[in-house]
Amino acid sequence: MGVAAISSGSIHTFRSRSGARKFPRIEFPAQIEIDGVLYPTNEWSVGGFSVPDGNIKGKKGDKGEGHLCFELPVGRFSTPVHFEVMRVTDDGHVLGCQFYSLNSGHQKTLQSIVDTYLTGETISLESVTSYGVKAQLHEEEVKRMQQNWWRFAVVALVSIALIATAALMIQSRLLSINSEHAAVSQPVFTQRSYNNGVLRLGEYKPGQRVKKGELLFSVFTEEGTDLLAKDKLLLSTINSEILYLQTLLRQSKESVARYNSRLFKELKIITEKRELLEDELKTRETILALYNNGVRNGTVDNVSRELERVAIYGIQREILSIDTEIEYIENQLDQILIGVPPREAQVDSKSPFEVNSKLNKLIKEKDKVLEEIERLKTRGLAYAPCDCYIVAINSTDGQVVQTGTSIFELSPVSKEDRTERSILALMPLERAELLKIGMPVEYRLASTEEKMTGIIDHIQFYSASNSDIYNDEGESLSGLPKVLPRLQQYTLIKILPDSKDTDSIVNEPVSVVATVGWSDVFKRWFNL
Description:
Blueprint: E1 3-4, E2 11-13, E3 24-26, E4 31-34, E5 37-40, E6 43-44, E7 48-50, E8 63-72, E9 75-88, E10 94-99, H1 104-118, E11 123-124, H2 125-147, H3 149-174, E12 176-178, E13 181-185, E14 187-192, E15 197-201, E16 209-210, E17 215-220, H4 224-297, H5 302-337, H6 352-377, E18 381-383, E19 388-393, E20 400-401, E21 406-412, E22 422-428, E23 440-445, E24 452-463, E25 476-477, E26 489-496, E27 510-515, H7 518-526
Antiparallel strand pairs: 1-11, 2-3, 4-5, 4-8, 6-7, 7-10, 8-9, 9-10, 12-27, 13-22, 14-21, 14-25, 15-17, 15-20, 16-19, 17-18, 19-21, 22-26, 23-24, 23-27, 24-26
């Protein structure tokens, strides 16, 4: 085995325009072969070489290629290089050149010679040539992968197809929102007695239709005058409470709006702070990588490196803390969006939704009191408030009734000459934002196995502690269970039934399934 031992020599360093060189330059004997002619070098490094003045003609910026050769006792070793002229004499002779596009394997070959020379060890021809062989194998592997790129593309397309198929198979399971309670419903008016007395009914039966303004029943009493005064006093009390609630509702909405604006400003500031911390983290990770190299080279002590690592951990902890704050703010914004603002945003113990709900009830109660007053003025006569369908008759003719006794339950008749029925469904509150008005849903009645499709017509918040539901006309909607846990909250949806659904029974249980798309889920996950 032939080796070349170098015991002495000088070491130089490339000096750039900024005053520092990147690679150590050595005087280990080497020659540069250009167009078959060998020229001696003064010194060389992994970054380039210098030649004696007067050997090679050229000007700065010229590019060429050749082989850097080393004469070893057992033979010559050479590696291909591309170079660019960097320094020339005034009379046009080359002094120094810089390598470019140097293959990583060839660069490692030159670096191994430099490292071995600098440490004073012997330079083995076998170790040098092994780097050249590895470089050649690497080039061949790159060419082989480039030639077979289409095979990788086919594999990628097949993988994507399999993933898409799997996604479609699990879509019905992962993207389905099932109702927790649902039933067939219809708008209902409860016609009550407006005073005490003996009830006089006409010839009515359940299922019969009555016209608006038609006399339904009468209650004769001697206490009508006293009841009229009582109702007027009640009307005055209701008007005062309505005025108070209207003021409170306006203040609550303004408070929630201000709190919502403040949350958005805080979220923006915290997000910007997080971005700055991420930039600082990336910079410190770069510095840590440099420290790691410095520790290995002996230019940086371990304490400095570990202090930098501790600083990185501190930034990461701060980012985690900021993420927690962001999540808390986003949760509060979500609460405001669904109409249940946090207590911090309210001017009273009740939310704007609760105040508005109570206000609506008082307005309905006021309307009823006004109706009662009108009925008392007409000696207890009760008239049909609409073209209605008699759902139930709760009292008998000749019965002594009290004020507020339920006499009739009436439901308005739709344009299609039948009761305007719908389906009320209670859905999970946590996925409320995925449900949209106009969205088709599947439902199945308890009396049939056939699946039908309805359209979501209305969405609102629902709690058993506030279980009275009214439509836009102020009519109550029946069908939901009355024994739900009072602390449980839901998303209430009203569904327009399928046109084929003509035989559904009021209060009949229903199972409802709403299927959402992947795009809606992704928008929810990433807040797009």
